[in-house]
Write a structure and sequence with these properties.
heterodimer, A: mainly alpha, eight-stranded mixed beta sheet, 38 helices, 8 strands, about 60% helix, disordered C terminus, B: mainly alpha, 9 helices, disordered N terminus, endoplasmic reticulum (chain B)
């Protein structure tokens, strides 16, 4: 078999990775399109009929007008008088509509009914109208607030990558109100301030979580007495917190609802008095941004999460004849055009909502039709922007010029034609009706048919626009997938090649390789297949941690079984030392595997991850109930254990050097810094103060400098005196070629320095994680550290008994299982955003993002860092290759599997998942389950690249320094190092 | 670990490994398997008709019934095929089998926990009863036949190299039960919201299915074994 050279291997790998990267980028930009949003703000042109030409340019700019004039101008041209003068928007974060309106015609549960007596009475006597408002996924506060003020559903990437709030620049209600000179006041969640900086006259943004709602309500009485505002926003966060803490049925829920009811009561009584005193009509709108699941979580798209509420409470009895309407379902975005029309401002440009016709019932028929028309014009403009074919000169203009009268045609054909036709039907009917009005022949059926025609256009346009996000350029997607498949095939081929090659070198040594397939190998392949197959099922993606745990523990059980195979309990045959050694190895393996299984089980029980069974008891919940003092005790203990373990594995090494003391000392220092940080700043709120920041920054500096310095300097200062191991284990004293000895020595030094670097890497990574992760995750970090160390012990003694790719796959599984054990899941909600600001004094998106990545990918990265240790442990597994002394061959042996196997597994999962995503693009859960998972997969790919680069860079640097740059050193070492002992032909498997 | 310790304590004689295992004819093997299956069926029948419960409604109790029904059948049947009959009486083999029940249950219990079975008190009886049933399927026949010979245990369970017809009869159903149980765990995380997705119902179904399939397979192997022996003899 022709062997593949190191250079070609490298080139192929780089090519495959590059192709993968390009394919991934193409796919991502194709699949998550940045929606063509209309820029700018709606102005006067929104009250004119959309024309065939590009509008906007034809109209004079209205920005120069003073606010008051603009307001009157709007009133004049809109022909719909504003129904209210003042507006109070009360946002109750996370209130499910079910609590107030009940579910499916059933009234809400008795406890909730009784908790909100005033609101319920308002609903009962028709003073308030309530709707179930379906919120779009993701049901997280900020995107929902954006939707509620702009009427647009943001793209997925917009949501995913917008972790730090930025000013909202698209057209929205607040900007429109601001333009007509409204004075706005905001109390509550400071997200509003971040979204709309500078728009509020007064504000009290809160971030703290305890006194949240008191902070809002304490201003309320004062604000209601004042009359210097037009728009008051109250954002109550408390209910969401109650949900997060205790779920839907929390004992605090009823009292929180009562508190909200009191607020509604206060506002309503006040506004009623104002109305009596002729101080203007005030509309109170109570909305929630999203609902919550049984456990109080949100973010997904289940009914419980998307079931948000809209309550219109105004001085008019809107719909006393509409008693059953309390169970009507609308979309959350529908409130935007409704509010815009109620207050006489242009509808925001990107709105996809539809006017709630019930809310404008008090208008005349003419005005109602005008309102619908304005809404239709706005949607038609948006359609024009998104469907370039809809300029429909030949339809639109022809009709208006010809004015054929109310001929209603059946609407068929392409999307453009369809919308055009619907719109024209409505417009034609409306025009005809208007003409009839002049001739005073007013009939209700004509009116109703216009309403129906408008509603048909509005609802179909709105529906299509909201599904627009799934419209993807198929060419790009196919190209991306093809590139991914190609790179995946190249990587698989490479792994296959080097896997085939290894036996040919080692054939004389081990009969094992002649054997076709061992059960653990079969299982590793089978496990990958299972992973691939499980990606097609949304529930398997939600509960992915079960798969990784199951596979990891099964692989370890199989290793356990394998270790038992050679475990001999018979004491009679212990005479031979080799058998004794074998027995010891086997015992050592059995015990470390037992340790891995045990810690793995604890890790699994730590966080009940996933989506469906998060409410089941787990260790973290139990500890949180037990109290914070235990958690911080555990945190400190884990930190101390990590330090002790990290330093002691350094000193286990056989060849002791003075460098070790220095490294050990610096590790101890950074460990103590972390400990000091824990002891000093136990409570989370203190994390943000300056002193804590400084100590964390010092820790970052110490850790970073130590790691980089050690990697760079260590190969230079490692003494070339390792043959003592050979002399100790010396079996064959026959003469050998000096070059071989030198090579062997260098390899041993390489092994030692990689060992030190590997230990340093994983220990400092764990220390970093201890600092960054939530306190509850301290123990899992320690357990992961132990797992990886135990795996190293197992694999160091396994020799060639396991195949390398199986071991690396097992480690990869361990890393992934650990990823979920740290509380991560495939929803974006579990990303620990709070940790991303530790030790950062000024706000920086890049640094926060980096920290967030470090926190989230703690465990997969630990796997990659442990690869350095693994390479060191396995450095002498193929003595034949090493004695050949060919640099390429040695590097290939060292780096081949440890880099290629994870890259290949990752590439396989990425490719398959991309295909799954493509196939599932119309699935119900595409935005809530599949897309977030895809972001995780992409981030895992990034993690694989970074990890592989770190491993390759470390090993190659060490190799180059030892084998090439220290050529001069080797001659002097002969004199210094004393008698060189020739190498045994068969190199014994080395323990640590 | 536990397996090793328990075996170490009871290690007395090692001579048994050298002897050829007792062979078993095809008809006998068939009867043994048929009786085991009948025992299973009987347990289900009793649970269904007499107590009107099933695996889904009362997993713990049903599993216990299965164990109770299988216990005498398995121990009494397999003790007949004990190794080196000269030194080991029938009663002693029965005693070994009875001793094998808790040990096997412990091993299976630990295995299930390691693979992620819940450890809360609510699930403890279910896990224990499942482990008891597993023990009857996996280790009890082996402990009746092999006794405490570590080498034989290792050969059959760690290396899967059964030697002779009776060992096929021990080895295959045991492996079948374990593999079936492993596969039976897969539907558990799916969101079908069926009652049988609870631990250990689907796993028990998997176990029983795997056990039954492997029994049929073991009959085939026994048949093969006997035929090759006959050919050798001729």
């Amino acid at each position: 078999m022709s062997s593949i050279s190191c250079t070609r291997l490298t080139l192929f790998t780089i090519a495959a990775v590059t192709v993968q990267f390009i394919g991934l980028s193409i796919f991502v930009f194709g699949f998550f399109p940045v929606k063509p949003l209309l820029t700018g703000y709606s102005g006067l042109e929104s009250f004119r009929r959309p024309t065939c030409d590009n509008d906007g340019a034809a109209y004079q700019s209205d920005a120069s007008l003073p606010p008051d004039r603009l307001r009157f101008l709007y009133q004049e041209v809109s022909e719909v008088p504003p129904l209210y003068d003042r507006f109070i928007l009360m946002v109750i974060d996370g209130l499910p509509a079910e609590f107030v309106l009940g579910k499916k015609g059933q009234p809400p549960s008795k406890a909730f009914m009784e908790a909100m007596p005033y609101t319920q009475s308002l609903l009962a006597n028709g003073m308030a109208v309530g709707y179930h408002a379906i919120a779009a996924a993701p049901t997280v506060t900020m995107p929902r607030l954006k939707a509620m003020v702009s009427g647009a559903i943001g793209g997925f990437l917009d949501v995913a990558f917008n972790f730090n709030t930025q000013a909202y620049l698209e057209d929205n209600l607040l900007a429109q109100f601001f333009k007509i000179g409204w004075k706005m006041v905001m109390h509550g969640d400071d997200t509003w301030l971040k979204l709309f900086p500078g728009l509020f006259e007064r504000h009290d943004g809160v971030k703290d979580t305890v006194q949240v709602d008191h902070n809002v309500s304490r201003h309320l009485g004062d604000e209601l007495r004042r009359d210097d505002w037009n728009f008051l926003i109250l954002h109550y966060l408390g209910l969401d917190h109650v949900g997060h803490i205790g779920g839907r049925n929390s004992v605090l829920m009823a009292s929180k609802l009562f508190e909200m009811d009191e607020v509604v009561k206060m506002i309503h009584i006040n506004t009623s008095q104002d109305l009596e005193n002729d101080k203007g009509k005030t509309l109170l709108v109570v909305v929630s941004d999203h609902g919550m699941t049984e456990n109080g979580n949100h973010g997904g798209s289940s009914y419980e999460e998307t079931d948000s509420i809209v309550l219109f409470i105004g001085p008019k009895t809107h719909a006393s004849h509409y008693f059953s309407s309390n169970h009507d379902t609308i979309f959350q975005v529908d409130i935007v055009p409704t509010l815009a029309l109620l207050f006489g401002v242009p509808i925001p440009k990107n709105n996809i909502g539809v006017l709630i016709s019930q809310m404008v019932d008090s208008l005349t028929d003419d005005q109602k039709l005008r309102a619908l028309q304005l809404n239709s014009w706005q949607l038609f403009r948006l359609l024009q922007a998104q469907l370039p074919g809809l300029s429909c000169r030949n339809f639109l203009c022809d009709t208006f010029i010809a004015n054929r009268g109310p001929t209603i045609s059946d609407c068929k054909g392409g999307r453009e034609k369809f919308f055009c036709c619907l719109y024209l039907n409505a417009a034609a009917l409306h025009d005809a009706w208007k003409a009839k009005v002049f001739s005073r022949s007013n009939g209700t059926e004509g009116y109703n048919s216009i309403i129906a025609a408008y509603n048909e256009f509005l609802s179909s346009a709105s529906e299509w626009l909201s599904h627009k996000a799934t419209d993807k350029p198929i060419n790009l997607l196919v190209l991306g997938v093809a590139a991914l498949i190609m790179s995946c095939l190249i990587l698989l081929g490479l792994v296959f090649f080097i896997h085939k090659e290894v036996p040919s070198w080692e054939m004389e040594d081990h009969d094992n390789y002649v054997k076709p397939w061992e059960i653990d190998e079969v299982f590793s392949l089978f496990g990958i297949l299972i992973l691939v197959a499980s990606m097609g099922s949304s529930s398997m993606i939600e509960e992915e941690h079960y798969i990784w745990n199951f596979l990891t523990s099964t692989v370890n059980l199989l290793f356990f079984r394998k270790a038992i195979q050679s475990l001999d309990l018979n004491k009679a045959r212990d005479a031979l030392s080799s058998i004794k050694e074998k027995r010891n190895i086997s015992r050592c393996q059995v015990s470390s595997l037992f340790l891995i299984l045990f810690t793995g089980r604890i890790l699994r029980g730590w966080h009940q991850g996933g989506v469906n069974w998060t409410n089941l008891p787990d260790i973290s919940k139990w500890l949180e109930q037990a109290g914070n003092q235990y958690i911080s005790l555990i945190q400190i203990a884990s930190c101390a254990t990590v330090i002790i373990l990290g330093i002691s594995i350094l000193f286990i090494m056989q060849s002791k050097t003075k460098v070790l003391t220095v490294i050990g000392f610096s590790l101890l220092m950074s460990g103590l810094l972390v400990l000091q940080h824990f002891v000093k700043h136990q409570d989370m709120s203190a994390l943000y103060n300056k002193d804590a920041n400084l100590s964390v920054q010092i820790f970052y500096a110490v850790l970073g400098i130590t790691s980089i310095a050690v990697v760079l300097i260590l190969p230079w200062v490692m003494p070339m005196q390792t043959p003592e191991i050979c002399s100790r284990k010396n079996i064959d004293m026959s003469a050998s070629v000096p070059v071989e000895i030198q090579n062997m020595t260098r390899i041993l030094v390489l092994k030692d320095s990689l060992y030190i670097v590997g230990c340093l890497y994983i220990t400092s990574w764990c220390l970093l994680q201890l600092l960054l992760q939530q306190p509850i995750n301290a123990m899992p970090v320690l357990l992961l550290f132990i797992q990886f160390l135990a795996s190293m012990i197992t694999f160091s003694s396994s020799g060639p008994c396991h195949k390398q790719w199986v071991e690396i796959t097992a480690l990869y599984n361990l890393g992934m299982a650990g990823h979920f054990a740290l509380g991560n899941s495939n929803t974006l909600a579990t990303i620990d955003v709070a940790g991303a600001f530790i030790g950062i004094s000024s706000h920086s998106t890049f640094l926060s993002g980096l920290l967030m990545f470090i926190i989230t990918y703690a465990s997969p990265m630990l796997f990659f860092l442990s690869m350095v240790l693994y390479i060191s442990v396995k450095a002498t597994i193929y003595p034949l290759v090493i004695r050949n002394g060919n640099s390429g061959e040695i590097l290939k042996t060292l780096l081949g599997f440890p880099c290629l196997v994870p890259l290949t597994i990752n590439s396989l999962l990425l490719t398959v998942y991309t295909i799954v995503l493509l196939l599932m693009r119309n699935h119900l859960f595409i935005w809530s389950v599949f897309s977030p998972k895809y972001l995780y997969v992409c981030a895992a790919t990034a993690c694989a690249y970074i990890g592989a680069i770190i491993v390759v860079a470390t090993v190659i640097h060490t190799y180059i320094v030892l084998f090439w740059l220290r050529k001069t050193f080797s001659s002097s070492s002969k004199e210094k190092g004393g008698p060189m002992v020739p190498m045994p032909p068969r190199f014994p498997v080395l323990l640590f | 670990m536990d397996r090793r310790n328990s075996s170490e304590k009871t290690t007395t004689s090692q001579g048994s490994t050298m002897k050829a295992p007792p062979s078993i004819s095809v008809s006998e093997a068939f009867i043994v398997n048929a009786l085991c299956v009948l025992g299973l069926a009987f347990a289900f029948w009793v649970a269904n008709t007499v107590f009107s419960i099933d695996l889904v409604s009362h997993p713990s109790l049903t599993l216990f019934f299965i164990s109770i029904a299988e216990l005498p059948i398995v121990i009494l049947l397999y003790s007949r095929y004990r190794q080196n009959r000269q030194q080991c009486t029938y009663l002693r083999a029965v005693g070994r089998g009875v001793l094998g029940v808790p040990i096997g249950a412990l091993l299976n219990f630990l295995g299930a926990i390691a693979l992620g079975a819940p450890v809360t008190f609510q699930y403890l009886p279910k896990t224990l009863n499942w482990a008891l049933m597993m023990s009857l399927f996996t280790t009890v026949p082996a402990s009746c036949v092999l006794g405490s010979s570590w080498a034989d245990w290792r050969r059959i369970f760690a290396q899967t190299k059964p030697n002779g017809s009776i060992e096929y009869l021990i080895c295959l159903p045991a492996h079948g039960a374990v593999i079936g149980a492993w596969f039976g765990a897969w539907p558990m995380p799916l969101d079908w919201e069926r009652p049988w997705q609870e631990w250990p119902i689907s796993v028990s179904y998997g176990t029983i299915a795997g056990y039954l399939v492997a029994m049929v397979a073991s009959l085939g192997f026994v048949l093969n074994c006997c035929r090759s022996q006959n050919i050798k003899r001729e």
